[in-house]
Structures are given as structure tokens and as C-alpha cells.
Amino acid sequence: MNLYATLALPLALSIDAFAASVCKSASLFKPSLREAIRTGFIFGIIEAITPTIGWSLGLLASQYIIKWDHWIAFSLLFMLGTK
To answer: Which residue of 8, 43, 72, 77 is surrounded by the most CB atoms within 10 Å?
Structure first.
């Protein structure tokens, strides 16, 4: 990943977590400080774990895709080039 992608990923994840936590807090009548900290902690942990899971699954899938990647690229190029 280049520098811009490395900076954009945490920004996008934090905006997503912020929007989800605002929606969660809007559904509560009178949230306490404990509930607010717990919600922020849960969203933070989830947003930290999901890219790691995606990266791990991508590494796992790449072992199988690498045998066919040239054919996939060729067929995508062929399909996009015929329009």
C-alpha cells in the first residue's frame, strides 16, 4: 500500500466507527459514561480486528489465486476490451 492508502484506511475506519457509535448512542435514552466508554471500546476493538482478519484471509486466498491470476487478468482484459 502506498502512503495515501495507508492514511485513508484508518480515516475511513474511524469515520465508520464514529457513525455506528452515534447511531448506537442515539438509540439509548440516557447513556451513562460507563456505557459510552464500553461502546467506544467495543467499536474500537472491532475496527482494529476486521482489517487484520481481511489481510489474513487475503494472504490465504492468494495462495490459491496465484495459480490462476494470469488467466483472471486475461479474461478481465478481454471482457473489458470487447465493449
So the answer is: 43
Neighbours of 46 (CB within 10 A): 13
What DSSP designation does 29 have?
S
* Cβ neighbour number for residue 49 with a 10 Å cutoff: 10
Neighbours of 16 (CB within 10 A): 14
Contact 25, 6 (CB under 8 A): no
Rg (CA), the chain: 20
Determine which helix (DSSP H) or strand (DSSP E) holds 82, and give its type and residue range.
none
Question: What DSSP character marks residue 30?
Answer: S
Alpha carbons 53 and 55: distance in angstroms, whole number:
5
pLDDT tens digits for range 33-77 = 888 788 878 888 887 898 889 989 999 999 888 988 888 888 888
Other CB atoms within 10 A of residue 5 CB: 8
